[in-house]
Each structure stands twice: as C-alpha cells, then as structure tokens.
C-alpha cells in the first residue's frame, strides 16, 4: 500500500544496517548499526523506502528534541518553538511537508506529544502490536513502541494494519482485531472525558477549550459524552515510570561500559541521562518490581473503566509547544544532578522528580497509555489564538484501535482537523 513512498527513520530504535545509530548521544556519535531491525524490515516489506534519519533527544528521555549532537529541533508552525519529543525530528519533517509519514516511537508520549505540538495524527498502538527485536524485545518493559506520524486517518489506519504483528518470540502479544472498513462506523459511543491533570499541574485554558470543543462536536454527532474524575493516581504512576527509566538506563549503561571496557563518566552523556543512570544504580530489584506492579494495577483499573465507556478523552498536551529557550530544569536542579552520585536513593528520587517536573507539566496525560499498554491517539483538532497546534487525546481498551480510527475519521470527515500549512496550501 505504500509502495515507493520514502520514510525517514527515527534515530532511536529504528535501525538499518550500516546507518548511523547514535540514539541522540554523543557517546555513539559514529556508531553504525550491524543489522536492520524487525520494525524497519516490516516498513520495507510494505513498500516504504527508508531515506534519512530524524532527530531525537538523547536516548529519548525528553519531550523536546535538543540533543547536544544535533541542537534544537524547531517547530514548522513557529520556528521559535520546539517540535517536541522524543519524535521531534519526525514530527518536524512531516509538519514541514517534506514527508507525509515518518517513523516514530512512543515510550511516554513521544509520538503523541509532537503530534499535538505540530498538528499531526499520532497513534500509540496497543502494547505488542508492532514488530520488535533483535535489538531489544521489551522496550522499557512494554512502555515503548514504534509506529509513525501521519497527516491522514487513511495512512494511520493502513500503516497500523499492514505493520501489525510481532514475532512469536516477543514477550508481549496484543489481542487480534479484524480489519474494518475505512468509512466511519455508525455506532454511537460512550465517551468519558477529563481535563484535570493527573499530577495536579496547571492545564492551559487552550487545552481545556480544545477538549470542550471536541465534547460539543461529539455530542452533536450523537455520542454519549460525560465528564469523570481522572481514573488513576497519576502521581504514584509517574514515580513508578521514573523508576523504570532509571533502572533501564542503569542496565543499558552497564552493557555499554562492558563493551567500551571502561567506566562511564558524567562527561559521556547529558546531565539528565547521568541523573537517571545514577538513580537507577541505587534502585533495588524489589523497588523495580513494585513499580511494574503499579503499572499492572493501573492497567486493571483502566480495563474496568472501559467496561463503562468506549473511549477516554483528555488533552494530548496541557500546553502548546514551548519556546526553544524555555528552561525545563533550573540551575538548582542541574547542581543537584551533578552531585546525585553521592545522594541516597530517596534523595535521588526527589531530584529525578524535580528534574522532570516542568516537562511533565507540559504533557502529563500521555504516560498512562504507555504504562497500561492501551492504545491512544492524538488528533489535530485545535489551534490557539497564536495559531499554534494543540491536540486532543483518545484512549481505548487494548486491541480497540478501530474505535480510535472511527472517532478520528469523524473529525477528519467533518473537516475538524487543523493540519500544518504545508498541507493546506496544496
């Protein structure tokens, strides 16, 4: 279906033999992949032609793309603003009209955040639906998954169904769903919504208004739309997410240190990465297990919630794209990170939470779907008075991508999408 169409690969987790494989890190500035991974093999099998690579923050830890070795990735809607992250380069390439589709991945919102900031469609599929390996099978314990960024529901749905299916060896296997018609279903849905930040942070009036506009539209379409209290403890969940980030970073650098035959230092990586590395080394095996159990409890709760409604609507991000010069940390936090190696586990946990606090306030809604394994999509239905894109997010139960496609088609067919200017001027 995509025969001959060029696609850029994300410079993180989408490897092609002989191509650079930096993961956005200066430590791997000259590294090249010895193989083409299964996700990219599948892209090629459906006719896509990898051409070039897109930028990402170091190891994908940020919701802005500002890796030291690449510099800032800017937003085509406003070059003074960030394209987001971690699939910021992919989003910028699509939003600029260079490619209609780009490889992307999402471990905490890294497809949906840049989709929101750039006026694109960003689907994070159900855990276990996409090809994985051989360069990693669990992807942040199932939180991370590769897919793409697009500008049409047709391409989103076709990409999903032609890419769907993972290896038998993969630890996560998604429930199977049948191909559905491209036309929207006539089924009327029960749609719950919330604009409350799950971590208690400030939500912009624009993000709330984006959801309110969507509620009016959906109600007019005949859907049963109602407000609910945010269904999980977001603060507890995000702390468990940071524990995973730390533990996975420590394990990754343990392997890298062995390969390089030397200890890694603060000079080998960016300060945020160093902080996660040191935090991860302080975590016990039991605390890591507890964090994963927290994810499972949230997944159980959300599946129970989806017995009462079909979709869960929220802002995709709480704010539009930040200015390039926005400091998402502070000098005080950077000073703490520089000495985190000497701190206790509890002190390190506090430093890590503070390190992410400002960036989390930009995008507190996306992480839930990663940790529960459920599918979610950001749709480009709103722009601010400054003409900045701001997406809305729908979540569904595992395997229910078709409901996300249905609702996306309804907005698209009603001409409710606000796509980048590169597509409106054609």
From TrEMBL:
SUPFAM superfamilies given for it? Amidase signature (AS) enzymes (SSF75304)
Record-annotated Amidase domain positions: 1-404
What Enzyme Commission number(s) apply to this enzyme? 3.5.1.4
Q: Which UniProt keywords apply?
A: Hydrolase
Report the top EC class in one word.
hydrolase
User: Organism's domain of life?
Assistant: Bacteria
For molecular function, the Gene Ontology terms on record are: amidase activity
Identify the InterPro entries for this entry.
Answer: Amidase, Amidase_CS, Amidase_dom, AS_sf
Which family does this protein fall into? Belongs to the amidase family.
Name by which UniProt lists this protein: Amidase
Q: What is the lineage of its organism?
A: Bacteria, Bacillati, Bacillota, Bacilli, Lactobacillales
């Amino acid at each position: 279906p995509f025969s001959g169409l060029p696609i850029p690969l994300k410079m993180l987790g989408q490897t092609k033999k002989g191509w650079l494989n930096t993961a956005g890190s200066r430590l791997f500035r000259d590294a090249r992949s010895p193989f083409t991974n299964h996700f990219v093999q599948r892209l090629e099998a459906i006719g896509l032609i990898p051409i070039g690579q897109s930028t990402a923050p170091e190891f994908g830890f940020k919701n802005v793309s500002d890796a030291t070795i690449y510099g800032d990735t800017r937003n085509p809607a406003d070059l003074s603003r960030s394209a987001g992250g971690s699939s910021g380069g992919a989003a910028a390439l699509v939003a600029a009209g260079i490619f209609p589709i780009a490889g992307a991945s999402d471990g905490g919102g890294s497809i949906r955040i840049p989709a929101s900031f750039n006026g694109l469609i960003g689907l994070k599929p159900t855990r276990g639906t996409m090809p994985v390996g051989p360069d990693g099978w669990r992807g942040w314990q199932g939180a991370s998954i590769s897919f793409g960024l697009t500008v049409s529901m047709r391409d989103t749905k076709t990409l999903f169904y032609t890419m769907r299916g993972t290896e038998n060896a993969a630890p996560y296997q998604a429930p199977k769903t049948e191909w559905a018609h491209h036309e929207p279903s006539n089924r009327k849905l029960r749609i719950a919504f919330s604009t409350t930040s799950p971590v208690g942070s400030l939500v912009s009036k624009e993000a709330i208004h984006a959801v309110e506009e969507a509620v009016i539209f959906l109600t007019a379409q005949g859907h049963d739309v109602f407000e609910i209290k945010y269904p999980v403890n977001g603060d507890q969940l995000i702390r468990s997410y940071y524990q995973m980030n730390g533990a996975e970073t420590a394990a990754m650098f343990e392997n890298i240190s062995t390969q390089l035959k030397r200890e890694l230092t603060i000079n080998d990586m960016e300060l945020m990465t160093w902080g996660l590395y040191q935090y991860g080394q302080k975590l016990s095996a039991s605390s890591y297990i507890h964090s994963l159990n927290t994810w499972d409890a949230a997944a159980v709760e959300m599946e129970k919630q989806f017995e009462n409604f079909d979709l869960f609507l929220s802002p995709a991000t709480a704010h539009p794209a930040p200015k390039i010069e926005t400091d998402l940390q502070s000098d005080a936090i950077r000073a703490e990170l520089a000495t985190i190696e000497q701190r206790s586990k509890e002190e390190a946990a506090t430093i890590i939470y503070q390190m992410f606090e400002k960036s989390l306030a930009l995008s507190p809604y996306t992480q839930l779907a990663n940790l529960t394994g459920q599918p979610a999509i950001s749709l480009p239905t709103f722009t601010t008075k400054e003409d900045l894109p701001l997406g809305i997010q729908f979540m569904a139960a595992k395997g229910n991508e078709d409901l996300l496609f249905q609702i996306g088609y309804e907005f698209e067919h009603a001409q409710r999408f606000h796509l980048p200017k590169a597509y409106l001027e054609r």
